[in-house]
Amino acid sequence: MDRSAIAGAMVVLIAGAVMMAAPRTRTYVQDVRPILEKNCLGCHSPGGTGHLPLWNYTNARDYAKQIVAVVTGKAMPIPRHYGLLGDKGTLTKADVDTIVQWAAAGSPEGSAK
Fold first, then answer.
1. Contact criterion met (CB below 8 Å) for 99 and 67
2. Which residue among 2, 39, 45, 75 is least crowded, i.e. fewest CB within 10 A of its CB?
3. Is 40 helix (H, G, I), strand (E, B) or coil?
4. Reported confidence tier of residue 8, pLDDT bands at 50, 70, 90
5. What percent of the chain clears pLDDT 70, i.e. is strictly above it?
């Protein structure tokens, strides 16, 4: 192999490694909406007792900083022992990390496709 072929192969390998190491951007549609549906919308929907309206992308985006504050401070969801959420009431570390990453990326909506 000549030097240009070796250099080209190295560029391809390095680019592939960088792409594999780089976390993908979290989006509302793909990542955050399922977390909200499972853990939040029981209260944060029309007619619910939650003060922040979270039932659609626009509302979730507008309240992204508040969502991050309450989930990282463990103020929400309300703990199970209050009996309000049945078997719900906790977010996994992965759920919290996903919400934080989504907000830090500018709260992108993503595609429904």
1. yes
2. 2
3. coil
4. low
5. 69
Distance CA 55, CA 78 (A): 18
* Pairwise CA distance, residues 70 & 103, whole Å: 13
Say if CB 87 and CB 40 are below 8 A apart: no
Cβ(56)–Cβ(32) below 8 Å: no
- Which of 98, 93, 82, 81 is closest to 28 using CA atoms? 98
- Provide the residue type at 40 as one letter: C
Q: Give dist(CA 12, CA 41) in Å, integer.
A: 44
Residue for token digits 């992308």? 57
CB proximity list for 83: less than 8 A, separation 6 or greater: none
Give me the count of residues in the chain: 113
3-state helix, strand, coil in the chain (%, to 5): 55, 0, 45
Each residue's pLDDT tens digit, 17-63: 544 556 789 999 999 999 999 888 888 888 888 888 899 999 999 99
Q: What are phi and psi of 33, to 5 degrees?
A: -55, -45
